[in-house]
Specification:
The complex is a heterodimer of chains A (295) and B (314). Helix content of chain A is 68%, strand content 1%. A two-stranded antiparallel sheet of chain A has the order 1-2. Chain A is globular, with a radius of gyration of 25 Å. Chain B has a two-stranded antiparallel sheet with strand order 1-2. In chain B, helix 6 packs across helix 11, helix 11 packs across helix 13 and helix 16 runs antiparallel to helix 17. Classes of the chains: A mainly alpha (295), B mainly alpha (314). At the A-B interface, strand 1, strand 2, helix 1, helix 4 and helix 5 of A face helix 2, helix 3, helix 7, helix 8 and helix 9 of B.
């Protein structure tokens, strides 16, 4: 009769707890092992990669030769700059445009509020279709331009709805008192609302950033010129399709084995996400998003 | 919103005065609305090419009307179209059966953990794949399960026969499904965990006082608590049921051939953008989009009939 009660549920016995722990451990291993393998192989010595026939889980020694050849100024270096440009510029523009729209929609007596909100919400119900979207992008002359990776996806209706919900939950007194002090909408927005919204801004910003960084389909669809390729397309060509990366593409005579070059390209495209992930993680804990979804 | 406007005095301004008063806010909204209209609503108009014999050098307006001709692949059952439809339906069923319930089970497991710390660490790890692009996920699967991947190298070094998983057309549908499970199951638990945390713990206490076993509690307390969110997500899934993953499939199509890998979205891309059959591709895309909207609206109606909230209120 000494069953412990936590949150009203009796504590299960040890066998059950150990079983659950093992199941969870297997799941986590399935997620983590591929990352470990890729990172290890990218720095593993030549000989060890050849012996293993491919992936190495624990490098015997560490060499950054593969990275040196990637950053020598060839295809991958250029793709990296393209991806960074698209991600940084895209995220900034996305945040500005989304916040402005969400703020306008959060004002209680805004004259266009209802029809504009309907335009935003209704756009979530359908997607325009691949062909018409392609023709539209072509029509505005964005084909084979880096802006094709930014402009069509610049605003996400879902993110606008999340931001609007957050702005609406800010205490009304703050904006009212700013108005009484003579601040206009722009000043209220930049000096009162934005500083109070740092948490939601970072989550939405990181969502946009991850989407830009990962964008593959839009690059495949809109860019024929391989000089404009972002990292994801380079990754597809040289890693998934296994096209040989020679010294001509890499811009260096130094040629480490293909396997470690391929893994290094993978790592280069994974690391930025791994770096921002802990920040994202911290905000999930605060329930910023789930709160907004419920509201 | 309604309550706030009640508290302030009812000013009956004319529309012109209100537009003038809100000119700054209208300016704020302008770029975002313009983008949504330009890349969500204007392309809808582009669907007219489904009824035209579209020639890129003539443009949409100058191309001849062709009536329902482009739709004949659908109505007459063109084999390539039927193949894409069949694969789409197979994949969407696999996803409904295996992908959809996976995060519910995982959320129940995470929720039943007693150590908050272990739960948090597990969540951090399991959410991660969601933020990887499909290119990365496909590449990682190749490295693990491919011909010279970790699994086969292990088998080879132990003199066991290797398994051909990547590039095997017979296993392709299973491979696609497991990739989605790997990528998104962890992240999808987030909504279920939020719903689980909303369940009143007194319900569990009452149930356990009444002698309900843990299984009974799961059935009578936990699952009813998740019902709303499960129905909501299932409706959203239904609306997407003809969308089975474009990037994921186009990346792997070469390796297995179109017989098993062509789905409606890749059919539209391959025939339209690559093949130049713009009108036919647009027609297939248009029908797919309309079916999607009908599915959401129908599912929502059914949810209302059963007394659930659904995606939107009546």
């Amino acid at each position: 009769m000494s069953t412990r009660i936590v949150q009203g549920v009796p504590m299960p016995g040890w066998p059950m707890r150990i079983f659950k722990g093992l199941v969870l451990l297997v799941f986590c291993a399935v997620v983590i092992v591929p990352f470990v393998g890729v990172i290890s192989t990218s720095v593993a010595p030549n000989k060890q990669i050849n012996e293993s026939g491919g992936l190495v889980l624990l490098p015997k020694s560490i060499s950054f030769a593969a990275y040196e050849s990637l950053f020598a100024g060839g295809v991958v270096t250029r793709a990296l700059f393209v991806s960074i440009f698209v991600t940084v510029v895209g995220t900034l523009l996305s945040l500005i445009v989304s916040c402005l729209l969400a703020y306008a929609l959060s004002r209680p007596s805004f004259v266009g509020g209802r029809p504009i909100l309907l335009v935003v919400l209704f756009s979530m119900l359908f997607s325009p279709g691949i062909i018409p979207l392609y023709l539209t992008v072509k029509g505005v002359g964005l084909l084979d331009s880096l802006w094709a990776l930014i402009v069509p996806t610049m605003i996400s209706a879902f993110n606008v709805v999340v931001l609007r919900a957050f702005f609406m939950n800010l205490p009304n007194e703050l904006t009212e008192s700013a108005r009484i002090d003579g601040a206009g909408e722009l000043k209220t927005f930049t000096n009162i609302v934005l500083p109070l919204s740092k948490a939601v801004l970072s989550v939405i910003g990181l969502f946009y950033a991850v989407a830009y960084w990962n964008a593959f389909f839009s690059a495949l669809l809109y860019l024929n010129d391989s000089k404009l390729w972002p990292l994801q397309l380079v990754l597809r060509t040289y890693v998934i399709n296994d096209t040989q990366l020679g010294s001509a593409e890499l811009g260096t005579e130094l040629l480490p084995p293909q396997a470690s070059i391929q893994m290094a390209i993978l790592v280069v495209s994974i690391v930025p996400i791994l770096v921002i992930y802990p920040f994202l993680q911290r905000h999930f804990a605060k329930g910023v998003l789930t709160g907004a979804v419920k509201g | 919103m309604l309550q706030r406007s009640k508290t302030r005095p009812q000013q009956q301004l004319s529309l012109g005065r209100r537009l003038l008063r809100d000119r700054v806010l209208l300016l704020f909204a302008l770029p975002g609305v313009a983008l949504i209209i330009a890349f969500h609503y204007v392309p809808l108009l582009g669907n007219v090419i489904a009824f035209k014999d579209y020639q890129p050098f003539l443009g949409i307006n100058a191309s001849d009307w062709s009536g329902w001709e482009n739709f004949s692949v659908i109505f007459n059952g063109d084999p390539a179209f039927l193949r894409a439809l069949k694969n789409t339906l197979i994949l969407t069923s696999l996803q409904s059966i295996f992908v959809f319930p996976a995060p519910i089970l995982l959320a129940l497991l995470l929720n039943s953990l007693f150590s908050e710390r272990i739960k948090r660490i597990a969540q951090s790890i399991l959410y991660l794949p969601h933020f990887m692009s499909w290119v990365i996920v496909v590449a990682l699967f190749q490295q693990m399960l491919g011909g010279s991947g970790l699994l086969n190298n292990y088998l080879r070094s132990h003199d066991l026969s290797t398994i051909n998983i990547i590039g095997n057309s017979e296993l392709f549908h299973v491979l696609l499904t497991s990739q989605i499970i790997w990528k998104d199951t962890g992240w999808a638990t987030i909504l279920f965990l939020a719903a689980l945390s909303q369940i009143d713990s007194q319900l569990y206490e009452a149930a356990s006082v009444d002698g309900a076993s843990r299984m009974k509690q799961l059935w009578h307390v936990t699952l009813p608590g998740l019902r709303g969110i499960i129905i909501l997500l299932f409706i959203l899934r239904l609306g997407d049921s003809l969308t089975v993953g474009f990037e994921q499939i186009i990346l792997q199509q070469q390796a297995v051939g179109r017989d098993v890998s062509e789905v409606l979205d890749t059919y539209v891309y391959n025939n339209g953008v690559l093949g130049g059959a713009w009108g036919v591709a647009a027609a297939v895309g248009l029908v797919k989009g309309i079916v999607g909207v009908i599915l959401v609206l129908t599912a929502n109606k059914v949810a209302h009939i059963f007394g659930e909230q659904g995606v939107y209120q009546r």
